[in-house]
Design brief:
Oligomer: single chain
CATH superfamily: Immunoglobulins
Radius of gyration: 15 Å
Number of domains: 1
Largest sheet: 6 strands, mixed
Order of helices and strands: EEEEEEEHEE
Length: 116
């Protein structure tokens, strides 16, 4: 089950969220051969055209269990202020299938910018 975390983003500002993934025993999750994907949109049922995709990076060493999701100031500058939803998934490809796990989800509040 995914962890729940609300995030606040300032409209027109760069944003990066560092995610530390751990196993049940408290050790860092090994993200070797994993990919990370994250998206946000106004509502869960919003059209895919209203979806904004985060840039996702797995940090080195991949055994540290750290991933970063980010948006540029240009991307956040196009957002209308208000509430959105998001989630973050990790995927692992083995020889026969792809295993997908949602690791983080929640709401995003975009605060309006005065200086543009």
């Amino acid at each position: 089950m995914a962890q729940y975390e609300d995030i606040t983003i300032d409209q027109g500002a760069d944003v990066a969220v560092e995610i530390h993934l751990i196993n049940k025993d408290g050790s860092a999750k090994n993200l070797t051969n994993h990919t990370v994907a994250a998206k946000m949109k106004r509502t869960y049922t919003s059209d895919s055209a209203d979806t904004l995709t985060f840039t996702c990076i797995v940090a080195n060493p991949k055994t540290s269990g750290v991933a970063t999701i980010s948006l540029t100031n240009t991307q956040t500058g196009t957002l209308k202020s208000g509430q959105y939803v998001y989630d973050v998934e990790i995927s692992f490809q083995d020889s026969s299938s792809t295993i997908v796990e949602r690791v983080l989800e929640g709401k995003i509040l975009v605060t309006p910018s005065v200086t543009r």
